[in-house]
Amino acid sequence: SPDAPWWRDAVIYQIYPRSWADADGDGIGDLPGITARLSYLRDLGVDAVWLSPFYVSPMHDAGYDVANYRDIDPRFGTLADADAMIAQAHDLGLKVLVDLVPNHTSSEHAWFRAALAAGPGSPERDRYIFREGRGANGELPPNNWPSVFGGQGWTRVTEADGSPGQWYLHIFDTTQPDLNWHHPEVRQEFLDILRFWCDRGVDGFRVDVAHGLVKRDGLPDWDGPVGLYDEVGDDASGDAGDGASPAQVQSSGGEVLDHTATGAAPMWDQDGVHEIYRAWREVLDSYGAPDRILCAEAWVTPESRLARYVRPDEMHQAFNFDFLDARWDAEAISAVIEDSLRSNDNVGAPTTWVLSNHDVVRHASRLGLDQNLPRPNGITADDPQPDAVLGLRRARAATALMLALPGGAYVYQGEELGLPEHTTMPADVRQDPTFHRTEGKVTGRDGCRVPMAWAKDEPSFGFGPGSTPWLPQPAVYGDLAVDQQQGVEGSTLELYRDLLAYRRKHRFGHGSLTWDALNSPSVIAFRNTSGDGERTLLVVTNIGGSPVTLPEGDVLISSGPLAEDGSLPTDTTAWLRLPVA
Ligand code: TEU
């Protein structure tokens, strides 16, 4: 309906602040840089932006280690710069989501410093998860949980008197101690942080590791997979219980890794997380219309469990990572779409589609890899290289498919340019803690975090004035820069604009999907009857090897050229206008 809340069909653009636009020329992107470039996003045709963390941080995990949730890191600017950015976005008709990191703080957060100083048994330690070690002298960690980033999930502290002391839990880096969400002060603090940012005008929050806040009572040992960077033995693979089907991926070292959290693991997806989000929803709803939203970053399968995060009294959105994870296979992708729509219909929520973000190999490269091999989490020059032409062709087809689906979608900065993963970055410039904690066995996520390319002939491709970017840009980014694609027919940037404009005009995000007779083991084909009731779109993605004959109808947009006889080549998506049924 025309009165439907804005977020149900929104396309939200993820800005990675370090890497979008650098106004002061220090090689790191910043808030003034973002403010100056926001009109690009209005012209692109998105509804909102989500910014990865810009808070005060020692940057051991690129800002996902927050030392002060109520201030801006000086690298990115000031609170006044944030206010100006939010105001400028609103002037342009864009909503603003910020990133909330509630699972852990930085070890430099005032609370954690106080916990270290106050010692065992203190109320300060109780805000985190401190335990005595096992073994005769407490020399062994309290349980066997590993860190998602490699190595063990516990670090032992030295007490004030110099003696080896308690251990604290960190599901991520040593510098990211997990908070104790059973503690009332922790709960209260995050309610206050939500209000702090709502009062500054933000329209919502992307919630980091939303499935991790509550751990199973007693912190029992766990031998199954914990996440992307976990090495999984034969015995553990695929047997995570709870109907979960963890996607298997492979690191450059060849070990099989698990990519997906499941309901069985004691550190993920515990029932207790849901009451936290109900309390948050009450805070957001107290601000009235238009809705301020919560989007769950929760690597949870199956989709019926993920749907539990988007009940009417909890979050509004949850990233559909099954869609991102799906192999380039018509049956697999159709099954994810069907499963997701069914699971979300049950709770009255739209699905939130996503293909790339700052944690995964960019889809222009991912889809150019051998699809029979498990997916990597980072690619080096020594790995089998993606086929760039094939990858981009499939990425365009995948995006054209995604933006035709009912629901909302997220677009990661640079995917609108078809930017590939940077696969030849030297080891000595890599910054991701996953790379360092695994001594390089896991390549990590730097390759998808490389600064944007705005203008081919400017220093750092227009990222910043005369700056050396914090990560090097590959030469190919020059040819893909915004100024090389703007107004160029057939460019990826113009494709995104066309898709977004048509989708918005006829409200396809509010439409309803029915499978078309063309759907087959090698073709994804559905109809979307638009939210404004004026259009029925036939969407066809050819994933098979042979051309598909399209039915009569206007081809409105296609992700690549059609064949001379009008048929749809492989790895191409077309949007056709059908008469309204
Ligand atoms: O990621 C959450 C998380 O669980 C990741 O390990 C995820 O599984 C993996 O990166 C997927 O490829 C979030 C942030 O998005 C990530 O950047 C942070 O490093 C992490 O939380 C810790 O805050």
- Overall spatial form: globular
Number of helices: 14
Beta-strand segment tally: 23
Radius of gyration: 23 Å
Cα distance spanning the termini:
18 Å
List each distinct ligand once.
Answer: 1-O-alpha-D-glucopyranosyl-D-fructose
- Show unreliable segments: 228-261
Q: Which percent band covers the strand fraction?
A: 15-25%
CATH superfamily of the domain at 511-578: Golgi alpha-mannosidase II
Explain what the structure shows.
- The two termini are 18 Å apart.
- Mean pLDDT is 92; it is low at 228-261.
- The protein is globular.
- It has 14 helices and 23 strands.
- Strand 7 (154-158) and strand 8 (164-169) form a beta hairpin.
- It is an alpha/beta fold.
- Helices cover 24% and strands 16% of the residues.
- Bound molecules: 1-O-alpha-D-glucopyranosyl-D-fructose.
- Residues 61, 64, 101, 148, 172, 208-209, 227-228, 297, 299, 358-360, 377 line the site of 1-O-alpha-D-glucopyranosyl-D-fructose.
- The site of 1-O-alpha-D-glucopyranosyl-D-fructose has 15 residues, from loops.
List the helices and strands and how they pair.
Layout: E1 11-15, H1 31-44, E2 48-51, E3 55-56, E4 68-72, H2 79-91, E5 95-100, H3 110-118, E6 130-131, E7 154-158, E8 164-169, H4 184-199, E9 204-207, E10 230-231, E11 248-250, E12 256-258, E13 261-262, H5 273-285, E14 293-296, E15 300-301, H6 303-306, E16 317-318, H7 321-325, H8 330-347, E17 352-354, H9 363-366, H10 388-402, E18 408-412, H11 433-437, H12 476-479, H13 482-485, H14 492-506, E19 512-515, E20 523-529, E21 536-542, E22 554-558, E23 572-578
1-O-alpha-D-glucopyranosyl-D-fructose (TEU) binds at residues 61, 64, 101, 148, 172, 208-209, 227-228, 297, 299, 358-360, 377.
